[in-house]
Write a structure and sequence with these properties.
This protein is α+β, with helices and mostly antiparallel strands and about 170 residues long. It contains six helices and nine strands; from the N terminus they run E-H-E-E-H-H-E-H-E-E-E-E-E-H-H.
């Protein structure tokens, strides 16, 4: 078993098989706190929702190492107000954490124009006019309560380009 040090762990981390016994023992001693399945923190005082939201980008790499941050999350560079984080990944299941929901979907991997993010994860690059598209996406997503609109790319671009041309 590798050497385990609580002080060497990040504020919020996902446990792995190699350290699970040491993590369980630290929880029993009151040195760590469990936030969700396999998710722990050294911070014993702060609200779980606040901890998770502050560390959302580090957590993506633990749950979805192949992820491409996309849709609304890539446009706004933060989780949606409802806690949704939009991803493209080979994994299919949502991960529900305090104050956050990772919502993966199938799709193409990173393109040449996408940017490397943290820990091997990628972030979809903003296209010209993306602020207008982001406003449109927020309105549609607020109505649906999900990450991505169910409009075709052509319909979304017609809407965004049409708004961009107006005075």
């Amino acid at each position: 078993m590798p050497e385990f040090s609580i002080d060497a762990m990040p504020e919020v981390f996902v446990s792995e098989t190699a350290i699970s016994r040491a993590v369980s023992a630290a929880v029993a001693r009151g040195q760590l706190r469990k936030l969700a399945s396999r998710l722990y923190t050294r911070n014993l005082d702060e609200e779980p929702e606040r901890l998770v939201r502050r560390n959302w980008y580090y957590l993506i790499t633990s749950y979805y190492p192949d992820a491409l941050i996309t849709d609304r999350t890539a446009l706004e560079n933060q989780p949606a107000p409802d806690g949704s984080v939009c991803l493209i990944s080979d994994k299919k299941r949502d991960v529900v954490l305090p104050g956050l929901v990772f919502r993966p979907r199938k799709g193409p991997g990173p393109l040449e124009s996408d940017k490397p993010f943290i820990g091997g994860v990628w972030r979809h690059r903003r296209a010209p006019g993306s602020k207008i598209c982001a406003r449109h996406a927020r309105a549609v997503n607020a109505w649906r309560g999900h990450c991505h609109a169910r409009k075709s790319r052509a319909a979304l671009m017609r809407c965004c380009v049409g708004k961009a041309k107006r005075p």
